[in-house]
Design goal:
By secondary structure, the chain is of the alpha+beta class. The protein contains 25 helices and 30 strands. Helix content is about 35%, strand content about 20%. It has an eleven-stranded mixed β-sheet. Strands 4, 5, 21, 25, 26, 27, 28 and 29 form an eight-stranded antiparallel β-sheet that branches. A three-stranded mixed β-sheet has the order 16-11-19, with helices on one face. The termini are far apart.
């Protein structure tokens, strides 16, 4: 018996040893199997002539084609090589097909997307495009599908783990990707709902509360385009309303994230203010920080195209970058392109008509079937008025018992972004640059411009509705009487622009675009002015600027809001030794959100809790949490609320006594120190900003599951993140986890028009989305310390730094 047991033990031991040896080898093979070769020769169907794909040492591909159709075919192939899962994941979002892969818990996301109808809008748009644009989109899709055809048996491991067989890519999928980006950059609907929630909750105090908590842009804030001498637009009007609000993004809840603000910085300096005598342009976009990055770097060289920069996986062409004559960057305009209309239907349960003016009109109805993994399909009937889709069925809890609400949104019409992108890549001077942007519809963006001739400029682009006088877009309006109908679209030539301003530089950081005398209403919800003011101050501080100055500005973490608020904190008398140490750190702090700063941590926790302690008892837990989704307003409302001597919010409703401002400040300091002790320990030396404030770069969606093996496979190690939500080097935390950085600087780009070969860039992660790939996260370290890599434009320089050359050869 002992011999038998010993023999069994030896066999099991041998099997264990074999398993330990085989598993790593199998795992290595399984992880590498999806990687596509980046050197050599591949025969593909669909090309007319060979295309060379030269990758630099960071895996960034530059495509050299003999014709333009092959060029965009190759870009589709390259995107699929490196980002196929990301492209498919974004397509699931845009199509509303999450539940087919993730089950019933994904249905809320699918319902809202199906109701909005991003794919329906993209399908309509496809039929309106010009032949050249359709041809480029078709070629791009063919390139994606050529990759799919030869890699069906070795797709990225996400497809294997989730048992997903991706469908072929279509040109409409690319248009859907553009519509999805427009949705990501639009916040107006949520703001309208938030204002209504303030009105409903706070009763007679609601209008004043809404005005203070979501206030208009500060009167002294910087404006991009100077006074036009026209009639001023009216200030925000807050009426009364009775419907509950939608609040934060359903998609964001499904992905277990907050809805972090999406902004950007862009500026351009004329040659009269540079050492070289030629312009400098800088751009860093602020979007979600996930694995992989939103952006994909590439160069496109073939036919008329000779351009490098950042593209969006799933979309052909370059979105921001430079060609041989011009450079450009982008920022979110935050203009109001969404309105909610309260409708009257003929039947509450099964409506077929809606009231408009003196008669009834038929509702359009679309029947959507949503597949559900492990369950029965769900049928969703989307009803549409002349204003747009009715949202109530998509938000059964948020809009229960409320009147039917239809959404009018410029992104649901038109397809101007696709042709504009191709023309933008080809533009060679200011007139052609502006002409390229004429068809641009949604999202509304601000473009900064520079050219090798020495010119600089700014152009707003996007379809912006003209509203009737008295309607300012801040709250829903009545749809049935027809009195609030849009009066058309602001003509492109009337959109704000500036060319070679006297100041010698232009700054666009989501701040107010036009002065109050601009004749059209753009929005009342600009971002805070802090970043624009700080960038402008730094640019004006030196008579001659160089590329290194652009780098330093992009790395700047100085906090203007802390400069305004710190005196309030330092006025507090510490209640114990730990509070005394905390205040001492704040007093010696240089107001920079650098990773080693302790004062930054103390201040930020105090500021975070101060707003909650001030208004949380009035708003309640849910509304306060949803209000955190609008951090831009919180940057400049806190000083105003503290300076308001008669502020009733200083009083804590939960106590019998009436608290003063000083009581509030003291309580928030005590609250902040207790929070830090609980989360970081009693030693203030451990309260450094970088130890607390970290970017996790979570993979979507597997890195969000909270499963340790998946986290290890798909997520890099979180890194300390410099900057804060209102600094130039921006890092925006979750609205529920104040130090988990979910959004921020997603890429950086600096163009030197004196020598475009000296241009610099960095992505937030890396080129590849493939697990364990060397280029998956190799730019994170550069991104973290605000360092850069060269943007290769000259082929000889590229070849000297080449990692490999892959030739795509026609079959």
């Amino acid at each position: 018996m002992k011999r038998f047991i010993l023999r069994v033990f030896k066999i099991l031991l041998a099997l264990l040893i074999v398993l330990l040896l085989v598993l790593p080898v199998w795992g290595y093979w399984f992880a590498r199997r999806p990687w596509s070769p980046t050197a050599g020769r591949i025969v593909v169907h669909g090309l007319a002539a060979p295309v060379e794909m030269i990758r630099d040492r960071l895996g960034i591909p530059h495509l050299y084609a003999r014709n333009e159709t092959d060029l965009f075919f190759a870009q589709g192939y390259a995107h699929a090589q490196d980002r196929l899962w990301q492209m498919h994941f974004n397509r699931m979002i845009a199509d509303g097909t999450f539940a087919a892969s993730f089950g019933r818990r994904a249905l809320p996301a699918d319902r809202i997307i199906r109701t909005l109808g991003l794919r329906r809008a993209a399908e309509r748009a496809w039929g309106t495009l010009d032949p050249e644009t359709r041809g480029f989109l078709t070629a791009y899709s063919a390139g994606v599908n050529a990759y799919l055809a030869t890699h069906r048996d070795r797709l990225p491991i996400e497809f294997s783990l989730l048992r997903i067989d991706p469908a072929a890519w279509s040109p409409v999928d690319s248009l859907c990707a553009i519509k999805l980006m427009s949705l990501n950059l639009s916040e107006n609907m949520d703001r309208e709902m938030m204002r209504l929630r303030f009105l409903k909750l706070l009763g007679k105090d609601g209008p004043d509360a809404a005005q203070r908590l979501l206030p208009p842009y500060p009167a002294d804030g910087p404006v991009i385009v100077p006074s036009s001498g026209a009639v001023a637009a009216k200030s925000a009007r807050l009426g009364s309303g009775g419907i509950g609000g939608i609040g934060g993004s359903v998609l964001a809840r499904w992905l277990e994230q907050s809805d972090p603000v999406r902004g950007s910085n862009a500026w351009v300096v004329a040659g009269s203010h540079t050492r070289s005598g030629k312009p400098l342009l800088a751009n860093d976009t602020h979007l979600g920080l996930a694995m992989p990055s939103v952006w994909y770097e590439n160069g496109l060289h073939g036919g008329r195209f000779d351009v490098v920069g950042f593209s969006l996986p799933g979309v052909p062409a370059v979105v921001l970058g430079h060609n041989g004559r011009i450079a450009w960057g982008i920022t979110n305009l935050f203009t109001d392109t969404q309105d909610l209309f309260s409708e009257v239907l003929d039947d509450a349960k099964n409506p077929t008509r809606y009231r408009f003016q003196d008669g009834w009109r038929d509702l359009a109805q679309v029947r959507e079937t949503i597949a559900v993994k492990g369950g029965r399909p769900e049928t969703l009937v989307v009803r549409l008025t002349g204003h747009g889709p009715i949202l109530n069925d998509a938000f059964p809890e948020e809009l229960a018992g409320q009147p039917p609400m239809a959404l009018a949104w410029t992104a649901l019409q038109g397809a101007g972004v696709a042709p504009a992108l191709f023309r933008l890549n080809l533009a060679s001077d200011w007139p052609r640059f502006r002409d390229a942007l004429r068809p641009w519809d949604s999202p509304s963006l601000g473009f900064v411009y520079a050219d090798v001739s020495g010119n600089i400029g700014f152009q707003a682009a996007g379809r912006q509705p003209i509203r009737v006088p008295g309607d300012d877009g801040t709250v829903p309006v009545v749809g049935a009487d027809g009195r609030s109908e849009w009066q058309g679209i602001i003509p492109f030539d009337a959109l704000p622009r500036s060319f070679n301003p006297e100041s010698g530089f232009l700054v666009s950081a989501n701040n107010k675009v036009a002065a109050d005398d601009y004749p059209y209403l753009l929005t009342h919800d600009w971002a805070d002015p802090g970043r624009a003011r700080r960038i402008g101050d730094l640019l004006a501080a030196k008579p001659r600027l160089d590329r290194a100055d652009m780098e330093r500005i992009q790395a700047d973490t100085y906090s203007l809001d802390a400069a305004a608020l710190r005196p309030y904190l330092l006025s507090v008398k510490p209640g114990n030794d730990l509070e005394k140490q905390a205040l001492a750190e704040v007093a010696r702090w240089d107001l920079r959100y650098a990773p080693d700063r302790i004062g930054a941590t103390v201040y930020h926790v105090w500021q975070w809790l101060l707003l909650q302690d001030m208004v949380g008892d009035e708003l309640g837990e849910k509304l306060m949490r949803d209000f955190r989704h609008f951090p831009f307003q919180q940057r400049f409302i806190t000083p105003e609320l503290l300076a308001w001597n008669a502020n009733p919010w200083f009083d804590d409703r939960k106590t019998p006594q009436v608290e003063t401002r000083q009581d509030l400040l003291q309580h928030s300091l005590t609250h902040a120190v207790a929070w830090l002790v609980e989360h970081q320990g009693k030693d203030p030396a451990r309260w450094t900003w970088g130890r607390l404030h970290r970017a996790p770069f979570g993979h979507l969606p597997l890195g969000q599951a909270g499963v340790a093996p998946l986290d290890w496979i798909f997520n890099p190690q979180p890194v300390p993140a410099a900057g804060g939500p209102f600094t130039v080097n921006a890092a925006t935390p979750s609205s529920t986890q104040p130090f988990r950085v979910l959004a921020g600087t997603s890429q950086r780009f600096i163009a030197d028009l004196a020598d475009l070969g000296r241009s610099l860039a960095v992505n937030s992660t890396g080129q590849s989305g493939q697990a364990f790939h060397a280029h998956r996260d190799d730019q994170i370290a550069l991104w973290q310390r605000v360092a850069y890599h060269p943007v290769f434009f000259d082929r000889k320089r590229l070849e000297a730094a080449s990692e490999g050359v892959l030739t795509l050869t026609p079959r």
